[in-house]
Automatic annotation (TrEMBL):
UniProt-recorded name of the protein: KaiC-like domain-containing protein
InterPro entries in the cross-refs: DUF7504, P-loop_NTPase
Pfam hit, one: DUF7504
Keyword Acyltransferase listed: no
GO molecular function: ATP binding
Organism: Methanobacterium alkalithermotolerans
Gene3D superfamilies: P-loop containing nucleotide triphosphate hydrolases (3.40.50.300)
Classification of source organism: Archaea, Methanobacteriati, Methanobacteriota, Methanomada group, Methanobacteria
Keywords from the UniProt entry: ATP-binding, Nucleotide-binding
Length: 218
């Protein structure tokens, strides 16, 4: 029950029950990476949950325009701060959280969505994306965020899902990076037009971003 990343010419398969850290700077293209990752899951009939601390649900839906959204759930930790929680298509698949600091309510929304897709929709494969862990660390201390992610990662592993945890590596000291790495089974780093994977497999490929698409170089 492996998971495909969804980028053309990138044949890596992610084993079920894997939590992955996706690191890179603002211009590395990691936002495009997770978009491919979610789109592939939706195309395969899998459930996908995006926890967003950086983009509103409205903006996310615009970015995924044209994709079948039936199994896509969004936990929006942005809109409430700006009074932008307006009703929109797929409203029942969106949960608004007051602040990225409210990890308890994020966990409640996650559990609700996971239970819904697994029990009511009987979907066995699940992808969870956190965009981003770096923002969570701006609002809560390292210990609190680690405990929260540990609970999430345990549920991912026991349920055979996959999680992708985005992080701005240069924004954190070694202690923060090493602590968060403890809950992961793999690390994907995007840096200097190279994607490097470590953990459940070891490999590297060259890439470039052309017209908002990631292209793998031969």
């Amino acid at each position: 029950m492996d998971y495909s990343i969804g980028i053309s010419n990138l044949k890596w398969l992610i084993p079920s029950g894997t939590n992955i850290i996706l690191s890179g700077d603002l211009f590395s293209g990691k936002d495009l990476f997770y978009k491919y990752f979610i789109e592939k899951g939706l195309e395969e009939g899998e459930a996908c949950i995006l926890v967003s601390t950086n983009e509103t649900a409205q903006k996310i839906l615009e970015n995924f325009d044209g994709i079948k959204m039936d199994n896509f759930c969004i936990i929006d930790c942005v809109s409430s701060r700006f009074g932008a929680t307006v009703e929109m298509p797929f409203f029942e698949q969106i949960r608004y959280i007051e602040s990225p600091m409210d990890l308890t309510m994020i966990m409640v929304a996650l559990n609700e969505f996971i239970d819904n897709v697994s029990r009511e929709k009987n979907i066995k494969k699940l992808r969870i994306v956190f965009d981003s862990v770096s923002t969570l660390l701006m609002y809560s201390n390292l210990r609190t965020v680690f405990k929260f992610l540990h609970v999430v990662s345990t549920r991912v592993r026991s349920g055979g899902g996959v999680s992708l945890l985005l992080i701005e590596e240069q924004a954190h000291d070694d202690m923060e990076i090493k602590t968060i790495q403890q809950i992961s089974q793999g690390i994907i780093n995007m840096d200097s037009n190279e994607i490097i994977i470590r953990g459940f497999k070891t490999d590297r490929v060259r890439y470039e971003i052309v017209n908002q698409h990631i292209q793998i170089k031969p």
